Amino acid sequence: MNRKLLVIFLSLAFAAMLYAQGAAPTKISGYLIDNACADGAKDLGPRAKGHSVSCALMDNCEQSGYSVVTDDNKRYKLDEKGNGNAVELLKNTQTKKGLRVAVEGTVKDDTISVTKLTEVTEAIN
């Protein structure tokens, strides 16, 4: 009986420890696009790559929030903090089309909780 209780206790403690760790931090890179322009797009990769900064800053586009589309055409929506960071980046970039970004944060489902969002300016091979 004592062994069973010990095993149950240790199992619960291990499960609690795993739960407390949460999702592992992730780094992704891709092109920034507003959700209004991304929703319903057939070929999202080329659309995001050619998406203009001026469009992304239009009122209804800004209000829709933002996503990052990776090179393998996977879309990650940004959380509220990431959306704020995206607006600041869009307002301060010299890039006119195809704003490439690097994002650090934790992914849950299709949304990334952003800890860092920066523009990628080096050439891509």
Strand order of the largest sheet: 1-2-3-5-4
Largest beta sheet, briefly?
5 strands, mixed, barrel
Total helices: the number is 6
CATH class: Mainly Beta
**Share in β-strands:** 25-35%
Low-confidence stretches: none
Write down the overall geometry: elongated
H and E string: HEHHHHEEHEE
Number of domains: 1
Helix fraction?
40-55%
| DSSP strand tally | 5
CATH architecture: Beta Barrel
C-alpha end-to-end distance: 62 Å
Structural class: alpha+beta
In CATH, the topology is named OB fold (Dihydrolipoamide Acetyltransferase, E2P)
Quick structural overview:
Helices cover 42% and strands 29% of the residues. By secondary structure, it is of the alpha+beta class. The protein has a single domain, classed as Beta Barrel (OB fold (Dihydrolipoamide Acetyltransferase, E2P)).
